[in-house]
């Protein structure tokens, strides 16, 4: 496998980063996860925009959008991939020990692209189990969830809770007891035929899949309520699903002890999302 590191493609064993990299020392950096279908990265511009926003929110100098895009496509092509998982990481770079970003003259830039491993079909047919985590989502005033940063420890703690309970994913509340999001995904549920999802103000990453699903729902006459919800609203829902770039629209069969059927709206939105993916794959690069 070839990895894009800073300015060139190198074999995986040579793709190494310094132990003085502030990404390693302090989690000082940002990332994006993307998915390529038929060799084409879905929603590439939106992902690059969000990476640039994350960079700007931590005053990190990321490479230009053109540079990032070219590096991604070179990595996909060099590895002979069609269906790919793509991860772009930008860290503060190598520097003396100390929090000051000025200690790091150059950011470290990495693109990893590997063959996409499909999720089991069963997950989409039957849904997956979620639990409510005790771990809270970061307070926007402490570490803004809109920064897709390398600091994932609170999400990892929630993920550990999910694993302990034999669940696939955990849902986090914000500090005010309102629903926020999963450890790597946004949550949706259906109540009174309205599609509900925590608003960005509830302290979530504004997922790119979330944004597309909201717009597909609206275009197809499904009312959408982006707001602040307590967990009881989720327990009382008729359908639940989550979204992210890799899983797309993933049905949820259970949250804690409450069970849900994989419902028609979930299936419809999943189909509409897949149609968008197919449509994008047909347009020229
Ligand atoms: N995670 N919320 C969090 C905390 C996330 O980490 C992600 C994405 C999302 C969904 O965003 P999008 O629809 O743009 O993928 C929501 C990716 C998949 C990851 O961490 O690998």
List keywords for this structure.
285 residues; alpha+beta; D-amino Acid Aminotransferase, Chain A, domain 1; D-amino Acid Aminotransferase, Chain A, domain 2; 2 domains; nine-stranded mixed β-sheet; six-stranded antiparallel β-sheet; binds N-(5'-phosphopyridoxyl)-D-alanine
Structure description:
This protein is of the alpha+beta class. The protein has two domains: 2-115, Aminotransferase class 4, branched-chain amino acid transferase, N-terminal domain (D-amino Acid Aminotransferase, Chain A, domain 1, 2-Layer Sandwich), CATH 3.30.470; 121-282, Alpha-Beta Barrel (D-amino Acid Aminotransferase, Chain A, domain 2). The chain is built from eight helices and 15 strands. It has helices at residues 22-26, 44-57, 65-78, 121-126, 153-164, 208-219, 231-235, 264-282, and strands spanning 2-5, 8-11, 29-37, 40-41, 84-91, 108-115, 128-132, 169-173, 179-182, 186-191, 194-198, 224-227, 239-244, 248-255, 258-259. The strands form two sheets. Strands 7, 8, 9, 10, 11, 12, 13, 14 and 15 form a nine-stranded mixed β-sheet that branches. Strands 2-1-6-5-3-4 form a six-stranded antiparallel β-sheet. The two termini are 24 Å apart. The model has no long low-confidence stretch (mean pLDDT 97). Residues 33, 155, 181, 184-186, 205, 207-210, 243-246 line the site of N-(5'-phosphopyridoxyl)-D-alanine.
């Amino acid at each position: 496998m070839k990895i894009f590191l800073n300015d060139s493609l190198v074999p995986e064993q040579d793709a190494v980063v310094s132990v003085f990299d502030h990404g390693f020392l302090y989690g000082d950096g940002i990332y994006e996860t993307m998915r390529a279908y038929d060799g084409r990265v879905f929603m590439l511009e939106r992902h690059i925009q969000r990476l640039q926003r994350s960079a700007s929110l931590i005053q990190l100098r990321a490479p230009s959008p053109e540079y990032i895009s070219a590096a991604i496509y070179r990595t996909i092509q060099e590895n002979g991939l069609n269906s790919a998982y793509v991860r772009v990481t930008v860290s503060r770079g190598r520097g003396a020990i100390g929090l000051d970003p000025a200690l790091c003259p150059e950011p470290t830039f990495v693109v990893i692209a590997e063959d996409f491993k499909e999720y089991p079909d069963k997950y989409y047919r039957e849904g997956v189990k979620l639990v409510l985590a005790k771990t809270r989502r970061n307070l926007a005033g402490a570490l803004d969830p809109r920064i897709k940063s390398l600091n994932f420890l609170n999400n990892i703690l929630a993920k550990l809770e999910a694993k302990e309970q034999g669940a696939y994913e955990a849902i986090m509340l914000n500090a005010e007891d309102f629903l926020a999001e999963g450890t790597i995904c946004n949550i949706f549920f259906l109540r009174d035929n309205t599609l509900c999802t925590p608003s960005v103000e509830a302290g979530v990453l504004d997922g790119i899949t979330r944004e597309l699903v909201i717009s597909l729902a609206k275009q197809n006459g499904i009312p959408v309520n982006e707001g602040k919800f307590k967990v009881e609203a989720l327990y009382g829902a008729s359908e639940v699903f989550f979204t992210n770039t890799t899983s797309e629209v993933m049905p949820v069969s259970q949250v804690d002890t409450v069970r849900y059927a994989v419902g028609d709206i979930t299936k419809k939105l999943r189909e509409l999302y897949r149609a968008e993916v197919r449509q994008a794959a047909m347009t020229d690069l």
